[in-house]
Amino acid sequence: MTAQESAPVILDKACLPQEIEERSFALIDAEIPEPRPFSGDLWRVARRCVHTLGDTDILPDLRLSEQGLEAGVRALLSGCTVYTDTRMAAAGLPSRRLAPLGVEVVPLMALPGLEAAAREKNMTRARAGLERIASRMEGNLVVIGNAPTALLALLEELRRGAPPPALIVGMPVGFVNAAQSKELLRRSPWPHFTLLGRKGGSAVAASCVNALADMALERAPAAHTPAQEPSSRNPE
C-alpha cells in the first residue's frame, strides 16, 4: 500500500442538499478564479454545467450568450413550454422550480403514436418527435441532451421556415454526429446554449434550464409562494 493509499480520507462537513450545492459552487469559484470565461448570470449557468458534470475542463467548449439567457428567462417568465428530447432531461427539471412559473415540460418521447411514426418514416423517435412539434416551438424552449438526430432535425426545420424557439439548449452527448450537430448549432443565427465536442447529456442540458428558472423566480418572487407549490416534487 502506498503512502497515498494509506492517507486518511477527509470528508466535507456539508450534508444537506442546499449546503452541498453551495459548497460545490464555492469550490468551483475557488478553482476557477477571475477573470473567468463568463461573468454575472452567464457564470451562474456555466458553473451549474460544471457542477453537473463535475468537470471544469468543459468551460472552453461552452457557448453561452446574453441574448440566449435573456430570451430563455423571458420565456420562462411567460409560462412557456419546455420540450425535451428525452424523459431523462424532463426528469432533471423539478416542478418546484417550473410549476410556480406556469411552465409545462413535455418530453418528445411521451408524444402519442411516436414509435409508429418513427417506424413509418424510418427515423429515430427523437427526430420524429421534433418534426411533430416544429410548428409549436415559437416562444418556447427546446432542450436536447441526448439525440443529435433531434438537433439536426430542429436545425433543418428552422431552415425551412419553422417558427424558432426562444432558446435552444443543444448538448447531445456521444460519438456519432454529436459534435457535428453542435457545431452546426454554433454557426446558426438562433439563440442557443451548447457544449461543443462529444461531451454533453440530458443532465447538463437540464442544468441550463434550472439556472434560468432560478433567475426567473428571482425576477418574479411573487410567483414562488407556498400556496402554488405542487404537493409532490420531482427530485433534483
Which key features would you list for this structure?
single chain, 236 residues, alpha/beta, Rossmann fold, 6-stranded mixed sheet, 11 helices
Give an account of the 3D structure.
- By secondary structure, the protein is α/β, with parallel strands linked by helices.
- Helices cover 47% and strands 9% of the residues.
- It has 11 helices and 6 strands.
- The protein has helices at residues 3-6, 17-31, 40-53, 66-77, 87-91, 95-98, 114-121, 125-133, 148-159, 178-187, 202-219, and strands spanning 62-63, 81-84, 104-107, 141-144, 167-170, 192-195.
- Strand 5 (167-170), helix 10 (178-187) and strand 6 form a beta-alpha-beta unit.
- The protein is globular and about 60 Å long.
Radius of gyration: 19 Å
- Our count of helices gives 11
CATH architecture classification: 3-Layer(aba) Sandwich
Tally of DSSP β-strands? 6
- Class inferred from helices and paired strands: alpha/beta
CATH topology, by name, is Rossmann fold
Order of adjacent strands in the largest pleated sheet: 1-6-5-4-2-3
Mean pLDDT: 89
Q: Please report the first level of CATH classification, the CATH class.
A: Alpha Beta
CATH homolog superfamily: Cobalamin biosynthesis CobH/CbiC, precorrin-8X methylmutase
Uncertain segments are: 224-236
Helical coverage, percent range: 40-55%
Summed up, the domain count is 1
Main beta sheet, described? 6 strands, mixed
Order of helices and strands: HHHEHEHHEHHEHEHEH
From the N-terminal CA to the C-terminal CA, the straight-line distance is 38 Å
User: What percentage of the residues does DSSP assign to strands (E)?
Assistant: 5-15%
Coarse shape: globular
